[in-house]
Each structure stands twice: as structure tokens, then as C-alpha cells.
UniProtKB/TrEMBL annotation:
<dbReference type="GO" id="GO:0000049">
    <property type="term" value="F:tRNA binding"/>
</dbReference>
<dbReference type="GO" id="GO:0006424">
    <property type="term" value="P:glutamyl-tRNA aminoacylation"/>
</dbReference>
<dbReference type="InterPro" id="IPR014729">
    <property type="entry name" value="Rossmann-like_a/b/a_fold"/>
</dbReference>
<keyword id="KW-0648">Protein biosynthesis</keyword>
<feature type="short sequence motif" description="'HIGH' region">
    <location>
        <begin position="11"/>
        <end position="21"/>
    </location>
</feature>
<dbReference type="GO" id="GO:0005829">
    <property type="term" value="C:cytosol"/>
</dbReference>
<dbReference type="GO" id="GO:0008270">
    <property type="term" value="F:zinc ion binding"/>
</dbReference>
<comment type="subunit">
    <text>Monomer.</text>
</comment>
<keyword id="KW-0436">Ligase</keyword>
<dbReference type="InterPro" id="IPR020058">
    <property type="entry name" value="Glu/Gln-tRNA-synth_Ib_cat-dom"/>
</dbReference>
<comment type="function">
    <text>Catalyzes the attachment of glutamate to tRNA(Glu) in a two-step reaction: glutamate is first activated by ATP to form Glu-AMP and then transferred to the acceptor end of tRNA(Glu).</text>
</comment>
<keyword id="KW-0067">ATP-binding</keyword>
<dbReference type="InterPro" id="IPR008925">
    <property type="entry name" value="aa_tRNA-synth_I_cd-bd_sf"/>
</dbReference>
<dbReference type="InterPro" id="IPR020751">
    <property type="entry name" value="aa-tRNA-synth_I_codon-bd_sub2"/>
</dbReference>
<dbReference type="Pfam" id="PF19269">
    <property type="entry name" value="Anticodon_2"/>
</dbReference>
<keyword id="KW-0547">Nucleotide-binding</keyword>
<protein>
    <recommendedName>
        <fullName>Glutamate--tRNA ligase</fullName>
        <ecNumber>6.1.1.17</ecNumber>
    </recommendedName>
</protein>
Length: 466
């Protein structure tokens, strides 16, 4: 029987959900969801000085926005500290770890001497094989007994086989002198206890895998499948940082990028499925595999993100898109839509979605239905409402009072009116845009009239003519 896939995302709550962390979470989510497995969430809050409830909240909010739902309860690493310590004591009892009484001064002196003599500064504790009878009544740390000979092979699904000589591994500290467990021990114990089968994380953790494997081996536990993914770089090829722009996932929500577009873009950032650029969540879950992840760092490209987001807006369900726009306004601290505005906006979406790349762009295109009378006419549109234009609108209004309110009829009436005026429809379109939206650039005049309805359209035309 095949073991069910279990992946995890394990952020440290010291700040927002970094865009790199968001992609790591996404890769774990896709891998588990595509195989009917579990995607777990663990908050690595052992650094009590830097871990804050606000940061935890920001990470959870970022994941919620991205739609990365997790299975089961959230695990707190800090709360598992007694279990981590118990494992260290078990290793101690089984002779796989030892008490080291070396002081920090002795370790520093050893390293300084080794450095000046050109020797390895890897600390070898004199307490490794000491009899317990010789132990002093003094503070100690608990160290694991690293293998002294041979090699450790990390079989990585992304990086390939990575071999590390065991004489390069130190006797890693498991418990500090105050009895608290170190991060490296906590990670292994938690992953084991959570039955994690696949550890998908940044390649900055690759060397940690060899050290963590010492604990797995000493405890006789199954080693998970490793997949260390490259970091994300900016367009200049350097590690993504503040100088490249926004780094937090929620910042992209506040800028108005749709979550589906963000998921699609992040999935393509370092992973590929043939030449497919645009795809749905269902396709991503179906296609995603570890062998599609590239070894080289991916480059974050805002133009590509916008392009993919535009495609997702274009195919989005209208009701879901309205809801996402309302969530965006809330996240950005902007005024909420009234009930009438929200309904009008949803009604208008069919003629707005095609060219908007972000939600603010979409809302801007919807200005005509979100605004109310009297319509403020901006400077560019004012030029289209001179005296001749106003007279033409006054003359046009009666022609629209008793007609069927559908696109075909409106096109016939307006084109016929323009012809009777000895002009082309284009000459009439400018004043109509100004009257209906107060703007020079708007969606199609016919679409605006249909969305606004007959009464509102006529009222706006009368206002403009006056």
C-alpha cells in the first residue's frame, strides 16, 4: 500500500509572508492536493524574542488570500519543546548523543588555534567518549554523535544527489545548556511526528538536510523525500529584496492582483509544464511534480505577473470577481461598494474584464457605473461637451425614449441619428462618453447604456445637455 503524501509549510512568524515563502507553500500545497494527500501548517515560533502574534496573523492572512488551505490544526513548534527534549534524552540514553561540558571560551580558543595553524575549525569535543563518572557538576549541552567516516548522500528531487563527507559534519548541539532544544532538532521531530513524507523547501536549507539526517538515522526513522527549490531573484539576477519592489504576499493583494493570477504566476516561477503559461488551479494540481522544478533561480517579472493576472480576470466568474474586488477594497483600506454599486459593477463585468490586468484597473473601467449623478466631467471629456455637442445630445434624447433597450436597437438608433446629423457615429461617441461617464476613455457606449439602463441613461444625457 502506498504511503499517503504529507507535505508541510513551516514559516517563522517574524514578519509577513514573503513572496518566496508563498511560493514554497504553493509548491507543497499543489504536490499534496494533486495526490489526494495532506498539506500541513507548522509555525516555527521557537525564537520567542522575534516571533509575534501579528506576524503569525500576517502569514495566515497571506495564505488565506492565496487560497492555500491546510489540513488539521496549526502546529506550534514552541509548544512541542518537551517532546523535542525527550528525543534528545532518548538519544543520550541510547549512546547516540553525549553531554558536552566544554565552555564557550574553550570552544573559541580551539577554533582560534585551529585557524592560526591552518587546521579545520570543526569542533571535536573531548567529552564525546568520556565516562559518565568523569562528568563534572557543571552546565552542559547535549550533542549528537556525528558519523566520523564515510559519506552522507542527500537524494534530492530537485538538486540531484548531493554527497557530503562525514568528516565535515560536527557533533551538532541538540539541547542547549538551559535544556531547550535547538531548531535543527525541533524540525526533525516535528516532521517525523507530523508524518511528513516530502520536505519541499528553499535550497538555502540543503546543507541542513545532511545534519538533520543524523537525527533521523540515530532514531531509526524514515528520512523524508527532499526537494530543495532555488530562491527567487529580481530582474537583475540578485536575490529578491526590497529594492526589487514588494516582498510580502499581502502587498500584492493590496496592489490589486487577483489570487488566481498570483497562484498561476508563482507556480510558473521555477517550475514548468511544457510551454504552458496560463492554467487553472485544477490543471496546476494535476500537472505539478517535483521533476518539473528547475535547479537555477527563478526571476520575478512584474510584467509577466500582470499579463497572467489579466488572463485570469478575463475568464473569472463575475460573482467571484465582484467578491474579490470587494476583498481588495477592504484590504487596501478603501471605501466599500454600496449594494447598488456592487450590483451595477457585477452587471458591467462582461464588458470590463477583457483588458484589465489588476483589480484597480477593473474598478477604474467601471467608473461609469460606480459614480452617480450629477456626473463630474473631467478636463479631457469637457472638450467633447461644447455647445454643439450639448445641442446634439438634447436632440438625441427623445429618439431614445420609446425604443427597445437592446444593443441592436441602440446601434440602429444612434447610427441613424448620426447620419441624419450629417456626421459619423464617432463624432457622437465623444459627447456620449462625457455624458454617461464623465470620461473621454470608457467602455463601449452601447455597453454603458445597457448596463446603466434606459432611465439612468436618459437622465445623464438630459443633465449633460443642460
Amino acid at each position: 500500500m502506498t504511503t499517503p503524501v504529507v507535505t508541510r509549510f513551516a514559516p517563522s512568524p517574524t514578519g509577513y509572508l514573503h513572496i518566496g515563502g508563498a511560493r514554497t507553500a504553493l509548491f507543497n500545497w499543489l504536490y499534496a492536493r494533486g495526490r489526494g494527500g495532506k498539506f500541513l501548517l507548522r509555525i516555527e515560533d521557537t525564537d520567542r524574542a522575534r516571533s509575534t502574534p501579528d506576524a503569525t496573523s500576517a502569514i495566515l492572512q497571506g495564505m488565506k488570500w492565496l487560497g492555500l488551505d491546510h489540513d488539521g490544526e496549526i502546529v506550534s513548534q514552541f509548544e512541542n519543546a518537551p517532546r523535542h527534549a525527550a528525543v534528545a534524552h532518548e538519544l543520550l540514553a541510547n549512546g547516540k548523543a553525549y553531554k558536552c561540558f566544554a565552555t564557550q571560551e574553550e570552544i573559541t580558543a580551539f577554533r582560534d588555534a585551529a585557524k592560526s595553524e591552518g587546521r579545520s575549525t570543526l569542533y571535536r569535543s573531548p567529552w564525546r567518549d568520556a565516562e559518565s563518572a568523569s562528568h563534572p557538576d557543571a552546565p552542559y549541552v547535549v550533542r549528537i554523535k556525528a558519523p566520523l567516516e564515510g559519506e552522507t548522500k542527500i537524494r534530492d528531487q530537485v538538486q540531484g544527489d548531493v554527497t557530503i563527507r562525514n568528516d565535515q559534519l560536527d557533533d551538532m548541539v541538540l539541547l542547549r545548556s538551559d535544556g531547550t532544544p535547538v531548531y535543527m532538532l525541533a524540525v526533525v521531530v516535528d516532521d517525523h511526528d507530523m508524518a511528513v513524507t516530502h520536505v519541499v523547501r528553499g535550497d538555502d536549507h540543503l546543507n541542513n538536510a545532511a545534519r538533520q539526517m543524523m537525527i533521523y538515522d540515530a532514531m531509526g526513522w524514515d528520512v523524508p523525500v527532499w526537494a530543495h527549490i532555488p530562491l527567487i531573484h529580481g530582474a537583475d539576477g540578485k536575490k529578491l529584496s526590497k529594492r526589487h519592489g514588494a516582498l510580502g504576499a499581502q502587498e500584492y493583494q493590496v496592489m490589486g492582483y487577483p489570487a488566481a493570477g498570483m497562484r498561476n504566476y508563482l507556480a510558473r516561477l521555477g517550475w514548468s509544464h511544457g510551454d504552458d503559461e496560463f492554467f487553472s488551479d485544477a490543471q496546476a494540481q494535476d500537472w505539478f511534480d517535483l521533476d518539473g522544478i528547475r535547479r537555477s533561480p527563478a526571476q520575478f517579472d512584474l510584467k509577466k505577473l500582470e499579463n497572467i493576472c489579466g488572463q485570469h480576470i478575463a475568464v473569472a466568474d463575475d460573482a467571484a470577481l465582484r467578491q474579490e474586488c470587494e476583498s481588495y477594497l477592504d484590504a487596501a483600506g478603501l471605501p466599500a461598494l454600496t449594494k447598488d454599486q456592487a450590483e451595477g459593477f457585477q452587471r458591467a463585468l462582461y464588458c470590463l474584464k477583457e483588458r484589465a490586468k489588476t483589480l484597480p484597473e477593473l474598478l477604474e473601467k467601471a467608473h461609469f457605473v460606480l459614480t452617480s449623478r450629477p456626473i463630474y466631467v473631467d478636463e479631457k471629456a469637457t472638450k467633447n461637451l461644447d455647445e454643439d455637442a450639448r445641442n446634439m445630445l438634447a436632440e438625441l434624447t427623445p429618439h431614445l425614449q420609446n425604443v427597445s433597450w437592446d444593443k441592436e436597437t441602440l446601434e440602429t438608433v444612434l447610427n441613424g441619428f448620426a447620419e441624419a446629423q450629417g456626421t459619423k457615429f464617432g463624432k457622437l461617441a465623444g459627447p456620449l462618453r462625457a455624458a454617461l461617464a464623465g470620461r473621454a476613455v470608457t467602455p463601449s457606449v452601447f455597453d454603458m447604456m445597457l448596463v446603466l439602463g434606459q432611465d439612468e441613461t436618459l437622465a445623464r444625457l438630459k443633465d449633460a445637455a443642460a
